[in-house]
Amino acid sequence: KNQVEQSPQSLIILEGKNCTLQCNYTVSPFNNLRWYKQDTGRGPVSLTIMTFSENTKSNGRYTATLDADTKKSSLHITASQLSDSASYICVVSALCSTGT
């Protein structure tokens, strides 16, 4: 059964502090993992896309890590700002295979 779980469900931090969001998944076979930021009333915006071979990817103050062996990812936000107040979504895509 393919599942994706994020933690924590909600988080309150002081402006300027760092924070980390976690994503655990059981999706197999794994294709890629994406982190999105969604502001209230707006559509999700892609922060990063990671494939099996990538361990770390940065996008400004956002740094995503991926451990494909333990099926875990984290999104680290450095020096948080008021504009970081949003929903963060972890999406894991399975690798589709076609039978003959």
From TrEMBL:
Compartment list: Cell membrane
GO terms for cellular component: T cell receptor complex
Keyword terms, alphabetized: Adaptive immunity, Cell membrane, Disulfide bond, Glycoprotein, Immunity, Immunoglobulin domain, Membrane, Receptor, Signal, T cell receptor
Domain Ig-like: 2-100
Pfam families: V-set (PF07686)
Domain of life: Eukaryota
Name this protein carries in UniProt: Ig-like domain-containing protein
